[in-house]
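User: These chains co-purify. Model them together.
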Amino acid sequence: MSVYGPMLDALRGVRWPARRAVGAAPPGAHRSSQKGTAGEFTEYRLYRQGDDPRALDWRLLARSDRAFVRLSDDRALLPTWIVVDGSARMAFPDATSARSDGALSKFAYGRQVAVGLAAVAHASSDPVGVMVLHAGGMQRIPPRTRRGAVQEIARVLEGATAGGAAALAPALVQLPTKARIVLITDCLGDTDVLLKAAAAHRAAGALIECVHVVAAEELTPPTGPFLVNDPQAPHDTRVLSRASRAEYRARFDEFRRDLASRWRATGAGYTEVRTDVPPARAVRAVVMGLALPMGDGAH
Amino acid sequence: MLSFASPWLFGMAVAASLVVAGLHLLSVRRPPPLMLPTARFVPDGDARAVARQARLNDVLLLVLRIAALLATGAALAGARWQGATASQLRMVVADEALRADTVWRDSLTRALAGDDALVDVSFARGVSRDAGAALVAAVRRASDITATHRAISRVDLTVVLPARVASRAGFDAWRSQWPGRVRVMLRGGPVSAADTSAADVSVVGGVRDDIVEAALGRSLADAPRRVRIERVASVTTERTASTIVVSWPTNGAPDGWEAQSVQDTVGALVANGEVLVGPFVRTASPSRVLQARIDSGTAAFAPARVIAWWSDGAPAAVEQTTAGGNGCARSVSVMLPAAGDLLLSNEARGFRRALIAPCDADRVPSSSLVKDGSRSDSLAPATAFRITGSRQNRSDPWWLTPALLAVATMLLLGEWWWRHREGPV
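Assistant: Joint model of the two components:
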């Protein structure tokens, strides 16, 4: 946890409220769509047959001879699933590459954001779980509220290595709909299928958050002609030259703009984070639903 | 100054270097690979890049490659390094007899020396017999020197001849082979005018009705020159400058000749360019001593020269200069028939004249060659003497070719090392 210590210190006191009322759930910190009798008073309602007599306001009945029931909003827990994309594309830039300048890879950055979000959710007493799809397959920890849940999540993420080409959509389908699901991905995989699955989950009541991780080196690739290959499509070789850089950037920007609008159209939250932004700041942006400044990028 | 035995080979190396330089500027090379997850946004295109702008390490590779090519070309072309840059060869060819005369040689060398000239003095045998020997030696010497000194462009030839030479036929024949001016210098005293006076010819010791006496005998009391023909062996004790003794014994061999164990017949006798055909029997030939004097020419202590030849080239009559150098004696080994007019015929005129002529009468004054030698005003071009061939393709100094090849090998190794250090291009 020492790696995440400074970031967790920076996130101390940050809360992550649900963007809308959650459904029936054990009492928690989030506003529930259910009305109950316990908790903070909200309004009176005329007694109807079948109401719990214990909910009657007896004093009001005595004064006005009318039977009213005291109502109050429910507070509910929100289980949070953090899904981390550990495909081969997330291993960029390679830490061993001379051109990386020691920058974090997208996977390492996403790992930090995931731990930060888990810590924030856990601080709200929400159960937090994680699912990571990486070179070794898929690992998942179901949402838990107990102490040490964040450390457990961090250990699982630390043990994962980016690689392979596992799709996120099938993993998303497996997750419950009564939960907040955070997808930390570079959106370069099965984006179309993932958007459809996210829309279906959203319609079923899930809260979907997409954290789009963009490497700074993807926005400004190194100068000079290079033969570029997609790690997951090594046979598709293209030349990134001075002449083609501008068109590459224009296409990438267009892709990100289009992606942002499509995610938001599904009712999901969408935040683009760049790997050269401190992870704590990215976590705050996700939690608060703010857009980070991205230069001449999508935002 | 660097020159080449085969400049076209070096020219090919230069052309190859230009091609390499062009390829460096126009080479198609693969850029380094880069894993980029967003590669799908890079426009499609030819997966090659043409680099027309050379980078610094490319320039170094180019320099290494061109240097290796030029070094190899220079080695194969027979590179020659000349410290001296003389453009003119002043060559002197003299008779071998003048080799000991250092005073003459030094003064001539000083006179010919110049900033832009290389002076070479050489000696040749047989120049006194025929001046053509000097030209032959000059052509050979000029070929050697011009092949070694590539900077030489002109050759100035000076031939030093004795006052008289036995023949000028060789000089006339070889003169056309020298493509320039030939300066003829005479070494020796002035040549006296040819003695055309009649001689008092006496024949002693002959048999009765000797054919020799009939053909040659003439008594002129006031003649300045006397010829004494002795038909017996060694009767003369008197030898004066004005008397030419001709030893022509009737039988046996004259002094200096050796009788042959087996006599053979010879069909003709040649003297003064005229051929006398007859039933001659050869009974003697020159002794070793006499033959050595004949072969040595004027270098001998008592020079001898042939004045009549058999048809097969063997000497038939020889003239020897007397020890004092002011007279001569002749010996004839020709057995004549006992009777007949063979010696009186017109065909025998040349032989008769050779026997009674003044000493050295048939030698050619070298002064007659002076005009023929300078019939061309220009100096001979050095290219006329340079020949191409495997022998001429050697480098100078000899180690220049292996040294250049070693340098080329090192440059190629350096190029290989640098290329692999840089990584695949």
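Chain B touches chain A through 21 residues (CB under 8 Å).
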